[in-house]
Structure formats: C-alpha cells, structure tokens
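job 3f2a | input accepted
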Amino acid sequence: MRNALYIFLVMLFAGWAMVACQWSLDHGQGGRSVTDIKVHRYDKLLDEYISGNSFSALQKMSTDYPQETKFLIEDVLAIGSVSDDNINLRLREYFSDTILKTLRRDARHKFRDMGRIERDFTRAFRRLKRELPHMTVPRVYAQLSALNQSVVVGDSILGFSLDKYMGADYPLYNQFYYSYQCRSMSPEFIVPDCLRFFLLSEYPFPWEWHRTLLDQILHRGKIHWVVAQALGTPTLEDELGYTTEEGEWCHERRERIWSHLVESGQLHSTDPMLARAYLQPAECTYPLGVDSPGKVGVWLGLQIIDEYMSRNKNMTIADLLRETDYRSILKNLQLPY
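job 3f2a | predicted structure (337 res):
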C-alpha cells in the first residue's frame, strides 16, 4: 500500500510548479460579456460624511448604497440598526476615534487609484462568467471597516475593506495582529480574497452531510484552485501566499503528510479544531510540527484538485464547483484513503 501511495504522490506532485491551464486568457468572445468592473468608492462617501458631517454624502449613502450601509452598520460594525434615530451620529462618533482617524487618512492616501485592482477584477470575472454563464457579476465596492471584516458578500454586491489591506509592514497592524496575519494584509490580496469569499457564497460548504477533514480540504482546495485559474496565478503556492521555502517544505514532505492523515484517522475526523489547525491561517500547521507553514490542508487540497482536473479534461469548472462527493475524487485518482 505504501508503494502504491508513493507512486501516486510522485505522479500527483510531479508538475507542481504551474497551475494546470484550463481556461484561455481573454481572446474569446464569451468573456467580453462582462463590462469593465469599476470599484464603487463607498469609502470616500463614508469618509466625507465622517470628516465634514456632509449631508449630501450621508444622503448618497442611504439612497445609492442602502445595502452597503446596512451591512456596515448592522453586521460589520454592529453598532445598531439603520432605522435607529441616532444611528448617523453613532456612526460618526465611532469613526472619530484617534486611531481610526489616522487609518482613514492613510487609506485615503494609499488607495487614490484603483486601476490595477479594477483590471484584475475585470479579467477574473470575465473568465468566471465564461465558465459560469448564469452567474450574476456583483457590484464591487470599497469600504472602511475599522479593522473588522476584510470582505463582505451580499445580494449582488461584493465589498472589501481598504483598512485591512494597508500592507504587511503598516505600523498600526503590529498592535493588533500577529506577523502571519499581516502577511496577507496587502493590496495584492484584495482580489483573490474577494473571489474566494464570492465563490464560497455561491458554492457554500455542504455542512448537512459533509463534515470530515477530507471534505473540507477538498472543498477549500477547489475554491482556491478556481480562483488561481481565474487570476492566472503562476503557481499553486502563489495562490496561498507561500514563500519558496514554505512550498519546498510541503513538497519535500508530501508523502509523509498524506500518510499521516490516512494512518492517524485524521482524514475522516469531524473535529472542528482539527480542521481549523489544517485550514486556517496560523504560524504553522500544528499537527505537522512547528516548522510547517500554515494552511497545509489547503495546499494539499489544491494539489489533489489540480491533478484531478488535469486527468479529467472533459470536466468543466461548473462541474467541479458543483461536485461535493469528495470521496469519488480520491477514487477517481486511485488515491488510498
């Protein structure tokens, strides 16, 4: 069994450097149905209201962005209901904190231009729309969240918080976040983060009958894989924000990682703490040792999905996203589990 496992893993990881090319770039006509995406600057309206008590800015927030305003007040900040009599004053007072004043000023300066972010969104959604023609392309907007949620997804809207992407070396972050968290708090993570949350909202994890670590590894892996394809990410490791050393650590131990999961019974565990240890950002993947990178479970899921798609050329992206029988994927690859 171990010999068969080793042969499979050698085949599985032999072409790890490049993401399997499933999509063409943007030369076909199908992708052109998505118009250029512009990021709506809700953050500027909010800042205008807070800084100058602008009635016109407040009015636009209520009339042009009612869902975004409701999300911000009731879900992101959780300071009350949009229908409360004094909610507008409460909103201003909340953002008038000294630290948040500095954060608002710095975000305004850093994100004066959204050109590159808009181009990345446009390219990605064109590719997604070609593969998922019934998908509704959301309205994309930027907001300020007072260091709360990075991304919000609603009915046909997709928002990201500028203050959560100021750069890994932004001084204020050192007061509130660990170094491994800061690594992903830079502008280049905005679009991939948004796409992942958007796809997870469209294709949520089926908790009602899939709860094992295996199910979660492959579900997360397929979402990351589709995002890597949509963005044309050079390597699967880039999709996870891994360094060269972290990628090498995983590849050098690939057989041991899978053997450990199978032989320990962890692969079929339903323990949420174990799933968190393998899938969530952290200093390391604790079950694999303190020298491991974080999110090794997601890395493994990416590798398996990449091999699965390379072997099943007739499977579409839509087919993959709908697939939730994750044991069948391993059977298809003849991977012992």
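job 3f2a | Residues 2-27+204-332 form one domain.
job 3f2a | closed
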